[in-house]
Amino acid sequence: MIKRIEATGKAKETIAFLKENFGALFFYQAGGCCEGTQPQCLEVGSFFPRTNDVCIGQVEGFDFWVDKDLFEYWKHAHFTLDVADGFGVGGFSLEVPYGKTFTIHYRLFTDAEAANLEPVKYNTFD
């Protein structure tokens, strides 16, 4: 099965640091508004995905949720979670006070990859 989300080494290091300091984490990437489309790293229980938002996989054991409309736009793309030095627009994300910001790099799946993608999970509150 082809993963929809993976992380760079730098992102994995940052996640390990955040896990050590905050415990259980999850990621949420919205479709706009105050946080733009920048991925947010949050503590489990501090935010809840909305109905029909989509979990596209896990990064370092933590769920990566995407806004339902954003997923429809990017469902044919692979996400690579990365981290950069500096402050992004995502002031709610846990890495921001440490001078880091998570980013996403996209690439379209090949036809062969698209035929063998890991399934996604929709938030249905079941």
TrEMBL record:
Designated name of the protein: UDP-glucose 4-epimerase
Organism of this sequence: Flavobacterium saliperosum S13
UniProt-listed InterPro entries: DUF779
Top-level division of the source organism's lineage: Bacteria
Alphabetical list of Pfam families matching this protein: DUF779
